[in-house]
Amino acid sequence: MDDLSGLDTLLVAFSGGVDSAFLLSVAHEVLGEKVLGVTAASPIHPLEERETASRFAEANQIRHLVVDSEEMALPEFIENTPDRCYHCKKALIRQLTQVAEERGIRHMAHGANTDDLTDFRPGFRAAEEAGLLTPLVNAGLHKSEIRLLAKQMGLSVWDRPAAACLASRLPYGSPITERKLRMVEAAEQCLMDLGFRELRVRHHGSVARIELGGEAFTGVMDVPVREEIVKRFQALGFTHISLDLEGYVSGKMNRELV
After folding, report:
1. Whose CA is closest to 126, among 85, 167, 98, 168?
2. DSSP code string of 45-77
3. Which of 27, 107, 118, 157 is most buried, by CB atoms within 10 Å?
4. Pick from 69, 14, 3, 76: which is nearest to 42 by CA?
5. How far apart are CA 117 and CA 113, in angstroms?
6. What is the pTM of this model?
7. How far apart are CA 161 and CA 45, in angstroms?
8. Cβ contact 204:242 at 8 Å
């Protein structure tokens, strides 16, 4: 990523996922103390992700800052229209810009890769409008290539499952509330506690729709596992718990827009 070598200072929007972790690590190799990773704290982001980001930055001695994002105060976000990500990203970028200006940082970047160009991502448009750099896109890197490079670099998050904000678990038009987000976060943590990795829990009112990687179907049907899931999901407030036979597919909720 030769475009990093021409920068004097850089702020990296750092979620804790493999893409932004790889970008932050490479930027740190090039710029040293002149790079700052910034992570958003919000009900739409699981606490586990924020903790992972903080541990990663500390372990690699990278400057890191956590800021509270304020998208839940935006009516245009909580209405959950198809452009909610645009408004969310714009709000976050305003905060990142403030952080950058306060610290004399001249450039900002995020960890979008070329795979992101093939899905409906309004947040990417907001980043483009704000002039955020996209070094991974410029380098032509796909997610699989980033994982391989991160593994070769010894990054602890190289095989971390792809993540998206918790609001993406709600169908468009279903208002976003903190209660719904907490239900989803706790339900997904339940599945992770049971050993599942690639997963989503979609919130359809009283119904929880579980998406799992295909190889996990056999395990989830074991009677003790199934009973534990039902018990814990019902305790969270879900009346019905269903298993999506298609399994986990990234961006599945965007099919409603076609």
Report:
1. 85
2. S-HHHHHHHHHHHHHTT--EEEEE--GGG-HHH
3. 27
4. 69
5. 7
6. 0.92
7. 15
8. no
What's the mean pLDDT in 147-161? 96
CA distance 121 to 185: 22
In the chain, which ranges are continuous DSSP H helix?
18-31, 47-59, 75-78, 84-102, 122-130, 135-138, 143-153, 178-193, 217-220, 223-236
Structure tokens, 151: 């593994």
Residues contacting residue 148 through CB under 8 Å, at least 6 positions apart: none
Angle, vertex CA 78, rays to CA 231 and CA 160, nearest 5:
55
Picking from 103, 71, 66, the residue whose alpha carbon sits closest to that of residue 84 is: 71
Query: Residue 163 contacts by C-beta under 8 Å, 6 or more apart in sequence?
Result: 15, 16, 17, 46, 49
Q: Which two tokens stand for residue 109?
A: 């970047």
Sequence-separated (6 or more) residues with CB below 8 Å from residue 40: 13, 15, 66, 67, 68, 69, 92, 95
